[in-house]
């Protein structure tokens, strides 16, 4: 299961739980599945965050590894 599939299923679970038409047992089963999916998504995000990095050359030409923050200004620090 990829991240997008897990998020989609999690959204469907939330919708069903919000409707309030499930039995207590069904609700608990759905909640348990939702927690498992949430944990899976968190794990995938953590792994992706660890992998994402960018290489930037300093003004002196040396290459430094910098964690990706999503901020474009970070990419320009060495220029």
What does this structure look like?
Helix content is 62%, strand content 13%. A hairpin with a 5-residue loop joins strand 1 and strand 2. The model has no long low-confidence stretch (mean pLDDT 81). Strands 1-2 form a two-stranded antiparallel sheet. It has 79 residues and is α+β, with helices and mostly antiparallel strands. The chain has a domain at 3-51. It is rod-shaped and about 65 Å long. The chain contains 3 helices and 2 strands, in the order ααββα. Helix 1 (3-19) runs antiparallel to helix 2.
Summarize the structure.
The chain has 79 residues and is α+β, with helices and mostly antiparallel strands.
List keywords for this structure.
single chain; two-stranded antiparallel sheet; 3 helices; 2 strands; alpha+beta; rod-shaped; 62% helix
Query: What fraction of residues sit in β-strands?
Result: 5-15%
Discrete helix count: 3
Low-confidence stretches: none
Order of helices and strands: HHEEH
* Radius of gyration from CA coordinates: 20 Å
Helix content: 55-70%
Outline type: rod-shaped
Task: Outline the fold blueprint.
Blueprint: H1 3-19, H2 24-51, E1 53-57, E2 63-67, H3 72-75
Antiparallel strand pairs: 1-2
